[in-house]
Amino acid sequence: MSDVKAPAAPDLSGWSCPLPLRDHPRVVMGHGGGGAMSAELVEHIFVPAFGGQTLTDLGDSATLTLGGARLAFSTDSFVVRPLFFPGGSIGDLAVHGTVNDLAMSGARAAYLSCGFILEEGVETELVGRVARALGAAARAAGVEVVTGDTKVVEAGHGDGIYINTSGIGLIPPGVDIRPQRAQPGDVVIVSGEIGLHGVAIMSVREGLEFGVEVQSDCAALGGLVEAMLAVTPDLHVLRDPTRGGLAASLNEIATAAGVGVRIQERAVPVPPQVANACAILGLDPMYVANEGKLVAFVPREHADAVLAAMRAHPLGASASVIGECLTEHPGMVVARTAFGGTRVVDLPLGEQLPRIC
Amino acid sequence: MSDVKAPAAPDLSGWSCPLPLRDHPRVVMGHGGGGAMSAELVEHIFVPAFGGQTLTDLGDSATLTLGGARLAFSTDSFVVRPLFFPGGSIGDLAVHGTVNDLAMSGARAAYLSCGFILEEGVETELVGRVARALGAAARAAGVEVVTGDTKVVEAGHGDGIYINTSGIGLIPPGVDIRPQRAQPGDVVIVSGEIGLHGVAIMSVREGLEFGVEVQSDCAALGGLVEAMLAVTPDLHVLRDPTRGGLAASLNEIATAAGVGVRIQERAVPVPPQVANACAILGLDPMYVANEGKLVAFVPREHADAVLAAMRAHPLGASASVIGECLTEHPGMVVARTAFGGTRVVDLPLGEQLPRIC
After folding, report:
1. What is the pLDDT of chain A when averaged over all its residues?
2. A213-224 residue pLDDT tens
3. B355 close to A (CB below 8 A)
4. Residue A191 burial (CB < 10 Å; 0-12/13-18/19+)?
5. Do B111 and A64 touch (CB under 8 A)?
6. CA A347 to chain centre
7. What whole-number distance in Å separates Cα of residue A44 and Cα of residue A36?
């Protein structure tokens, strides 16, 4: 995370931020990390500026009713570096990121928009390769790209290709999945091994090697969520732990619902190559980004059946119960360590690695 | 429009572009100008990559049916420079651009998404000012910002603030407005004076003065379109002539519908300050961007009533008939000049001025 020196006396006249943004009169990389600093931007700038209850709910996607239809609507911009990495590309991410945000409301993505910001000088062949990756990922996920936009900025004002996708999908009747619905007694399930996307990006960007090549887990989760909903429409919370990792997702849920979350550290599936990379780099896998995993808060009576349905799906084959939801310590996530102790799993401040997605 | 030298031998292996993109192995500023070069990117890269009929229709927004509701869905990225200009800001544009794209399907915008790409080092106070402008414009247009995303890129890989908005809106029953519906006999109406946005941006960016300060016409057109639809749901085509100006919009409609368009040059309302600026700079007002105007193709029997309804609305007070739709010269736009001659009004190649929105 880098920092930028502020000018001697920033002009804050007319500035009505309810609380000062942590000594940062200028945006730093951590503001894009999906952690506490990102949350401060949203809480102190965007929510007061835009207003509205739907935005304040801060789910992965907004839930709306329009013309009698219950819709999920979500947006994500993608600035990942490099554009192609083991297991995927910015084109795949641009589809999966938005499709997964919709899936976290229980919605099956139907339509995507796609906005490109191209840097002058980027090869048209590269634009074509990214577009084809995006199109192929969309077809595989069963979602149609129906509207788009292209802007070009001068060389030195972009980084090759940035993409925004927004998506809309239909929420099935009886489904009401959102962070606020986490309840004491809920079982916390993760759909598979964590940390793969972040470590894959880090390894190619920094030229690190950890024995075997680490592949991003980048995938569209709509099918897995459908399999879970076939067991019961009464899933309480779904979240895909991208920027900020599992730690950020669990903290957001604990805060939104006013519940405590306790996980068993040993139960969290961390693959050896992620564990090795994190040990070398001094990172905690709980904070590393994923792009094809979800965490679910499921009523205890449905937990076994939902877990079985997840394990029967290719993207949930190594799903496991990692913890539970409590009345104690509302808003806080704790982990039982392998040695029998308990530690607080805090919301990360910024991001261990910028431009992960 | 700048150009970039290609490397000696670009590697085009695996490149399946149906036609070569005009000797441009690299993206140049003109690819973002909304003219022929933008269309080539869409036609030769994005449509083949993404597939799908809805995208191929290439309206300002896509028309969909989801859960029984007829929806319009649109996206736009905004990279305008400077961020604040006479008559508006990137925040206003981000709302009006998307609201207007939806209005051009006859839809009243209901919900917006908003994705920020911030450059490391930009003042948080500036982010706040832009966000408040965006929020105020959204409230004024009666649309709610319901979902968002923020990414941060390193200094030197952005330009302060880029914004993407996507929007969804409901299309009223019986309304079917799209470029393909232009018909010989249709009357072509423009809602007011053209060229103001482009000249306003140009004057502040280049430090030019043209007597009086030129204000952008940046405005949300949803209310004006509602007033027109109250006369008849049978409007054939609506288009907001942004990048590429009135010339680009008329050409796109002529091509999509396979009709000819003839306009009376003298009937096109060009305000004196735009005429002066264009005369000095050697530009044609027909190619200069607007952000609060629309062009309508209306069946002849409704033209008088629609024109009257437009003139009764503040944003259509100087609406005028500028031409008609013909069977002759399909796909071509011609202008009767003040001297009785006829000239072809071609699709612009790139943009006279980059990063106008």
Report:
1. 90
2. 899 999 999 999
3. yes
4. buried
5. yes
6. 14
7. 12
Mean pLDDT score, A147-156: 96
Task: Give the gap in angstroms from C-alpha A79 to the nearest C-alpha of chain B.
Answer: 7
pLDDT band at A57 (very low <50, low <70, confident <90, very high): low
State the nearest Cα–Cα gap between A213 and chain B, in angstroms. 25
Which residues does chain B have with pLDDT short of 70? 1-22, 53-59, 210
What domains lie within chain B, and their CATH numbers? 63-170 (3.30.1330.10), 179-344 (3.90.650.10)
Q: Are B145 and A10 an interchain contact pair (Cβ–Cβ within 8 Å)?
A: no
Nearest to B164 among A11, A24, A115 (CB): A115
Q: Mean per-residue pLDDT for A250-271?
A: 97
Q: Which helix (H) or strand (E) holds B238?
A: strand B237-239
Q: Which residues contact A179 (CB under 8 A, 6 or more apart)?
A: A57, A58, A59, A237, A239, A252, A253, A256, A257
Which ipTM was obtained for this model?
0.92
* Yes or no, beta carbons of A125 and B25 under 8 Å apart: yes
Task: Please tell me the predicted confidence (pLDDT) of residue A212.
Answer: 78
- Nearest CA distance, A290 vs chain B (angstrom): 17
What pLDDT, on the 0 to 100 scale, is given for residue B13?
Answer: 38
Q: Which chain A positions have a beta carbon within 8 Å of B79's beta carbon? A: 117, 151, 153
Give the pLDDT of residue A58: 59
A162 contacts chain B (CB < 8 A): yes
Q: Is residue A177 a contact partner of residue A61, using CB atoms and an 8 Å limit? A: no
Sign of the torsion formed by the C-alpha atoms of B310, B316, B318 and B323: negative
Among A residues 229-258, those touching chain B with beta carbons less than 8 Å apart: none
